[in-house]
Specification:
Blueprint: H1 9-31, H2 38-49, H3 55-61, H4 66-78, E1 82-86, E2 92-96, H5 98-119, H6 124-138, H7 145-150
Antiparallel strand pairs: 1-2
Helix pairs in contact: 1-5, 2-5, 3-4
Length: 165
């Protein structure tokens, strides 16, 4: 209770949303010089973690509809950020290109800076406590430590993409 009042569920929800918007705006500003949007970086980040993901898998991972992910993927193919490759049967998979990987790595460094600046007010124990609280709320939806750290590295994670619906 930083200001002496209790934190209602509504107040916490609003604070989380405001932090999300702050991160989104800061990321948009930092990614613009790279020619990327947050949505494009997020798709590149997930393709890095889940090579050969289907359009539907990418949509699920990036919190988009299949239609909006399809539109985004088409634009990203046109910019040589990703390529479409044949998968099993009629499936089409997506793979990050060398250009996309270079921009993903640059964008990840910017994202790490934005998040580092945001959470620098917390010491290690404070970040651990916040992580524990979020894990309690999110349960199985909490990102794994492996997936989170792999986003900042050059090697893809071995975590499988979600199963198609």
């Amino acid at each position: 209770m930083a200001d002496g009042t209790s934190y209602s569920a509504g107040r916490l929800g609003l604070a989380i949303k405001r932090l999300q918007v702050r991160h989104h705006r800061a990321l948009e500003a930092r990614l613009a010089p790279l020619g990327l949007t947050v949505a494009q970086w997020d798709a590149l980040r997930h393709l890095h973690l889940h090579p050969d993901a289907s359009l539907h898998e990418l949509a699920v991972l990036t919190f988009q509809t299949d239609q909006s992910m399809g539109t985004l993927a088409t634009r990203m193919v046109a910019r040589d950020l990703v390529e479409r490759v044949d998968g099993p049967g009629r499936a089409v998979r997506h793979r990050i290109t060398a250009t996309g990987e270079r921009l993903r790595a640059e964008a990840q460094r910017e994202a790490d800076r934005v998040l580092g600046e945001s959470f620098r007010v917390l010491d290690d124990a404070g970040r651990d406590r916040l992580g524990d609280l979020l894990a309690a709320i999110l349960g199985p939806d909490m990102p794994s430590a492996t997936a989170a750290s792999a986003a900042s590295t050059s090697a893809p994670a071995s975590t499988p993409a979600p199963a198609p619906r």
